[in-house]
Structure formats: C-alpha cells, structure tokens
Amino acid sequence: MKLSFRTVLNCLVLWPLFALGCATVQPQTKPDTQQTSPAGTPNAACDAKQSQLLKEGDQTAVEGSIEKHLAKNFPDHKVSWFMPEELYQKYVVKANAVNFGRCNDTGCYLFAAPTAFMQDKLQKSMQGGKHDAAALGQALGLPAKNFEGPLRLMTLDIGSPPLCVRLPVESDPGVWKCQSAADKDCFKPGGYTSGGVPEVMVINAKVAQTQVVEVP
Q1: Which terminus of the chain faces fewer neighbouring Cβ atoms within 10 Å, N or C?
Q2: In 3-state terms, the chain is what percent helix, strand and coil (to 5)?
Q3: Rounded (5°) CA angle 64-55-140
Q4: Counting Cβ atoms within 10 Å, is residue 171 exposed (0-12), middle (13-18) or buried (19+)?
Q5: How many domains is the chain built from?
Q6: What is the pLDDT along the chain (216 residues), one digit of tens a residue?
Q7: Does any domain span residue 42?
Q8: How far separated are the first and last CA of the chain, in Å rounded?
Q9: For residue 136, is it within any domain?
Q10: Is residue 28 domain-resident?
C-alpha cells in the first residue's frame, strides 16, 4: 500500500512511523519454514534456529528479555525503516522481493525500530516540504549520507500476524561490531543502536504486508 507523505502527516496518530537505513533487500530464496507457537507475543513465530538466537539476544538485553524490550519500546507492535529510493527500486521493485532484509538460507534479517519514535524524528526533520538528511541522521545517531535523497518509509505491524522478533545478535547478517564507545553506525548488544535508538531484529518481514510511504 502506498500513500503520499502529506497523507501520512495528516494521520500520524493512526499510522506512526519509523526509520533505520541499514538493511538491504533480497528476494527470499527458500520457502518460509517458520513454525507458529502459541499466539500472544510478536516473537511467537520463531523457528528452532531463531529461537536459539532469541535466547542469545536475551542474555544481553538491557531490559532483561525481548518481551520486556517490546513492552517498553514497542507497545503498539509497530516498526518502520527507511530505504533510499534508488535502493528500494533496485532491491524491492525490480527484484520482486518477497521479504525485506539481508537474506541467507536461514531467512531474511531486518533491523527495525519503534515507529512512534521515528515518526517524531522524521516530522522534526522536515524543512520546506522535504526531509533534512543531516537533521534526521543526527537524531538517529547515523551518518547523514544514509538519508540523502528521496526515501521510502516502511511500516509493519509485527503482531498481526505474529512475526519472529528478537534482539539483534553479533552473528546476524549486516552487523558491524563497535570498536570503541565513540563509534557510531555500528552494532552494540542489548536492544539499542549505537545512537541510542531501540531496535529489534525482524525475521522474514513480508513486502506484501508492509505499508510504504514516499518521503521527499
């Protein structure tokens, strides 16, 4: 579903936003093998591999567990992320992608953060009808180059239907470990980015179930 950015600004309360531009998109190369566990939490759909990584992530969780992390930072179970328009066209549209994220034979891995938080940062970055890449990058603790040019903003409800959601771990595709406390745009365990933004890892985030917004 695609809406104009103006339409989104007119319904922010109904449809919150998020952004994090570190993941690329590949079409899924294997059938979805996730098994659904008893419903009730967004991480109920993790298969055996992801369940083990979920436990690994919980060992470093600032909040103590993925459930507590979600309750504190993702109470509405909504996540979002940015992609530059050029990459969106290349990896989603032209590739006819099934899932968002970096993919391997265990699934597609997507970093995401709270939509409500990112909605606020995006709105504050708008100047003259366009987003300010420097302001947005500074607000998210990421380089401005990640947000230059037109963007696409994706929003996904991770609770309906439940998706496999956990804290990122060092072995995840796309992770670059921070070498010092001053490093930015790198991985720190615990559920927060190096810039202090709450994050989760979403496994096999379906393109067809994601709402997409053009950001000038």
Answers
A1: N
A2: 30, 25, 45
A3: 60
A4: exposed
A5: 1
A6: 444 333 333 322 222 233 333 344 444 434 344 433 333 466 778 999 999 999 999 999 999 999 999 999 999 999 999 999 999 999 999 999 999 999 999 999 999 999 999 989 999 999 999 999 999 999 998 889 999 999 999 999 998 888 999 999 999 998 988 787 777 778 889 999 988 999 999 999 999 999 999 999
A7: no
A8: 17
A9: yes
A10: no
Residue 194 Cα distances to 25, 140, 157, 182, 191, angstroms: 22, 9, 24, 9, 10
Residues counted in the chain: 216
Q: From CA 210, how far away is CA 156, in angstroms rounded?
A: 5
Residue type at position 73:
N
What Å distances lie between residue 158 and 129, 144, 198, 202, CA to CA? 30, 28, 15, 8
Q: 61 to each of 85, 190, 215, how far by Cα in Å?
A: 33, 4, 32
User: Is residue 211 classed exposed, middle or buried when 0-12, 13-18 and 19+ CB atoms within 10 A define those classes?
Assistant: middle
For residue 52, what pLDDT is reported?
A: 96
- Expressed as residue numbers, the domain containing 69 is 2-22+49-156+168-215
* Structure tokens belonging to residue 18: 């998020």
Positions of E strands within 45-195: 78-84, 99-100, 102-104, 107-114, 126-127, 130-131, 151-157, 164-166
Instruction: Compute the distance between CA of residue 199 and CA of residue 63 in angstroms, rounded to an integer.
Output: 12
Q: Which amino acid is at 9?
A: L
